[in-house]
Amino acid sequence: MSRADFPDVEWAVSPGAVPYEPAVAAMEQRAADIRAGTARELVWLVEHPPLYTAGSGARAEEIAQAQRFALHRTGRGGQVTYHGPGQRVAYVMLDLALRDRDVRAYVRGLEAWLIAALAEFGVTGLRRPDRVGVWVDRTRPGGMEREDKIAAIGVRVRKWVTFHGVALNVEPDLSHYEGITPCGVIDPRYGVTSLVDLGVPVTMADADEALRRSFPAVFGARPVSAAPPAVT
Fold it and tell me: Cβ of 58: how many Cβ atoms within 10 Å?
């Protein structure tokens, strides 16, 4: 299938803080329905209440640190990270069987999507081969090298359907990261940031529109508005 032939992808936004466990259950059900051919692909944008999640690569000492908020073990890749208000989580449910069956290429696509969205606000997002996610250079002239993560990536693929996805920091409380070692990065040269922390006055709606506009060029599908999955 050529990129021009990709079906439209449903695009849904849930208002308010969506509880984590019910959201994961709804996401996994949608992924199963996509595999069964009974539902369309979906990008689902949510915010969560403050919480930590531990991926398949989380180390015991990282989990032990995560005591400030509830910790949820999850099947995505990666280590321990934070979700909370002011952070846009995008759960991406795509059928890689319609595209290249290449998980690494898919992750690179997620990075490219985030980088393109950030560029709309004049922010240069960076890939780093030894660190997952999207980073920004915070080095000051004559100062020590400094890079901060602005977006995290954690995915899972089952029978070529993707779920979980990305988390873009728009305006979260960055002090909430102090209870963990985000994504296992312990080097003091690397931290976390957000668009507002960088001095870019972006609303969540602004970020959503940038993500939506940037999506087709990377994934070859047109977003069409849809109702979000029911969370119970």
Answer: 23
With tokens 């409380």, the residue in question is 173
Token digits of residue 227 = 């109702």
- In the residue annotation, 143 being an active-site residue is answered as no
DSSP structural state of residue 161: E
Q: Lowest-confidence range among 48-57, 87-96, 175-184?
A: 175-184
Q: What pTM does this model have?
A: 0.92
| C-alpha pair distances (Å), 59 with each of 40, 63, 209 | 35, 7, 36
- Name the nearest CA neighbour of 207 among 164, 151, 154: 151
- Is the Cβ–Cβ distance between 163 and 38 less than 8 Å? no
Calculate Rg over the CA atoms of the chain.
17
Rounded-to-10 torsion of CA 215, 194, 16, 82:
100
Residue 75, pLDDT score: 76
Question: Which stretches of the chain are assigned E, i.e. beta strand?
Answer: 9-17, 42-47, 51-54, 71-73, 80-83, 87-93, 126-128, 131-137, 147-158, 161-169, 190-192, 223-225
Q: In 77-219, which ranges are continuous DSSP H helix?
A: 103-119, 204-219
Neighbouring residues of 50: CB distance < 8 A, sequence distance ≥ 6: 69, 82, 83, 84, 85, 173, 176
Of 168, 183, 185, 221, the catalytic one is 183
